[in-house]
Amino acid sequence: MRRPVIAFTLIALLIIVFFVLNLSLGTIAIPFDEVVRILFGADASGDEIWRNIIWKSRYPQTITALVAGAGLSISGLQMQTVFRNPLAGPSELGISSGASLGVATFILLSGSISQRALVRMGFVGEMAVSVAALLGALLVMSIIMTMAQRVRGNVVLLIMGVMIGYIANAIIGVLKFFSNDEDVRSYVIWGLGSFAKVSGDQVTTFVIIMLVLIPLSFLLIKVLNLMLLGENYARSLGLNYGRARHLVIFSACLLTAIVTAYCGPIVFIGLAVPHLCRTIFATSNHLTLMPAVTLVGALLALCCNLIARMPGMEGALPINSVTALIGAPIVIWVLFDKRRREEL
């Protein structure tokens, strides 16, 4: 009983620490006491530039990382449970590929047709990219949900999702072949993922949507626990397994679609965090795992965002490079540790 309480307390404290570090550290270092004063509205003795850096750049980026990490981690846990596959992640059903196809169609075709990609039209372009990504993700999600009603086997559905991803990537490849270098570069930069893309009113909209979806996903805790028992046993306990599977897949896909639309495709967080939480908390009970992956996902995203903006470095590293460098070793370590325990 004490282990989860200690772990949750430590994770919450680390989130606070990394939240402040994300606001304080970067190309320009801001003293900790000034960050606290600015956050709480006190008169800061520092330069007005510090206020602008925090409120217009670092704060939106930090909040975005916090919420996106939580959403992707919940989606990953739901996917691994419903498919009973440790390698299932938020992008396995082709949702991220669908979002990428939407963005590729928008960026590459708009550049080819109008000779000026709309993505370079400031705020309007940024909003249009988010809308294109969301439409692409929702299109693939609707296809997956239709298949889920007709295909009973989880493995078959998972393979179909992967195939849809391949088809989307093939279409993207054709679009890139016929596009000019500048448009391709814009698309590639979007595909690297970033928590800094969300700014202004977009942050408010993104956070509100996620603050609605994340609590709703917690309503599926009992369903997820029953799914762990197997389909036949879950049905004997009164669970409408087909309906439950549709709800879980819909929840996971929607979380992934929203995050990808605003931040681009973010890899490995949704795959690594559920494994890490099962190891830390030594349980498969979703009553513990759901809040655990929410907090650990937020913490890992804050950590990756801070590394991507290493203090003293001009610019920022691609967030996907950082998440892969951190997430892949975590998955490898967890799988090796699990294998070692099974052999004992």
Number of discrete helical segments: 14
Helix content: over 70%
Number of strands: 0
What best-fitting shape do the alpha-carbon axes yield?
Answer: globular
Q: Output mean pLDDT.
A: 83
Which structural class do the helices and strands define?
mainly alpha
Q: Write the H/E string, N to C.
A: HHHHHHHHHHHHHH
Sheet-strand content, in percent, reads under 5%
- Largest sheet data: none
- Radius of gyration over alpha carbons? 21 Å
The N- to C-terminal Cα distance equals 25 Å
Poorly predicted sequence stretches spanning 5 or more consecutive residues? none
List the helices and strands and how they pair.
Layout (H helix, E strand, L loop, with lengths): L1 H23 L7 H8 L8 H36 L11 H20 L7 H29 L3 H24 L3 H11 L9 H17 L3 H7 L3 H6 L4 H23 L5 H13 L4 H23 L10 H25 L1
Helix pairs in contact: 1-3, 1-13, 3-8, 3-11, 3-12, 3-13, 4-5, 4-6, 4-7, 4-11, 5-6, 5-11, 8-11, 12-13, 12-14, 13-14
Quick summary of this structure?
The chain has 344 residues and is mainly alpha-helical. It has 14 helices and no strands.
Features:
14 helices; globular; 344 residues; mainly alpha
Task: Give your account of this protein's structure.
The protein contains 14 helices and no strands. It is mainly α and 344 residues long. The two termini are 25 Å apart.
